[in-house]
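S2.1 Query sequence (Agmatinase)
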Amino acid sequence: MYPSLSLTVYALTILNAACASPMLPSFMRLAVSDATIHSPDDTHATIHSFAINNAHPDNRQGTSDKDDFAIDSMFAVSESPDDSHATDSPDDTHATIHSFAAKANTHGKFDKDDLVSNPVAADSLYAGLGTFAHLPYVQCLQNTSLTYDIAFIGAPFDSGVSYRPGARFGPVAIREGSRRTLLTGGYNVPQKVDPFRSWAKVLDCGDIFMTSCSSSIAGTIPRLLTMGGDHTITLPILRALHAVYGPVSVIHFDSHLDSWSPAIVGVDPDDDSAMNHGMYFWHASKEGLINKGASIHAGIRNNLVDAHGYEEDQELGFRVVEAREIDDIGIRGVIERIRECVGDNYVYLSIDIDTLDPAFAPATGTPESGGWSSRELRTILRGLEGLNIVGADLVEVSPAYDTNAQITAFAAADLLFETLSLMVRQPVKQTA
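Output structure tokens follow.
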């Protein structure tokens, strides 16, 4: 397992793109006051104080490095030191949830005090802290003594969108969509693994803020599943991973290539406006972050600027599987094309929710009809078993456009569940 200190470094470098492109932000922890929080009213007051202090740069000098309660409260998860439902550790909480779900699933006999002596079980199944699949929430950026293997982390950022905004609320929507993941247990039947009860210690680290630039260098890091946010977050993640693994093979599920040259919009590549969620792979390729010739887009179906769009994308190092090809080669053919492309290389998996047809995922910024179904994409992901995945993201969930049934949030949570299962089944292997 990896020390959480490494995640601190990773989070500080994960968006260091601003050093090359000032517009692209980097993640960075902001501090809040030393106030001890004893009640919900104190929580709300602390959040207000945090917002007020950070609205005025001169006030930030008095903030503390010790307390990040308000940060996660504003964007994702929260916990009170005096919570009457507290258990001895986050692992105890998750174990209780599993026990409760297992009894419900097997129609086992509940002890008469189950819902009284262990109120966290009932609360966590239906409400509780807003973490992915009720995973233990730990402030990973502060707890440098903690060890773990895989972490979920939210990136609430959408300043790089080109059409509909709202992806900054993606992490909270995905977490909400994952609440029922453990309702009947966490065993993934097709993948034959329970990723929540395995060799891997998995946590939810909450959300992280973004600032203009960080020049820190990433060290050895745990594997992260990042919940966006718009797709520009992938570029700084690739930059941080490059410091550890070198160029990685990218498996990019999307309806768009996301490899536009800045010249298409008539700007200089070094200009602030040369970065949005349709250009980041152009930058990644030019910076040597991807394994050229061994990276692939899958699910593509957008219009191109001209007839040479695929040629230019190929020059950047990508191959392409169009969404329509599934009609001819089938799901197995798509899987084989992807596996043949990336081989045994280190792999970064990036999933844009608009890979799915809008019938299955309407809540996204740039929807394109003619996409794959949620069943098809989940099956394709399962077919990537054994690949050397070093990290992943799921991006572009904009919950404001979802249905009342939250079908996009559910689909996103399920895709991350499949991805987590892949990562648990195959620890990272050293490559030559």
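The longest helix spans residues 407-425. The chain has a mean pLDDT of 74.
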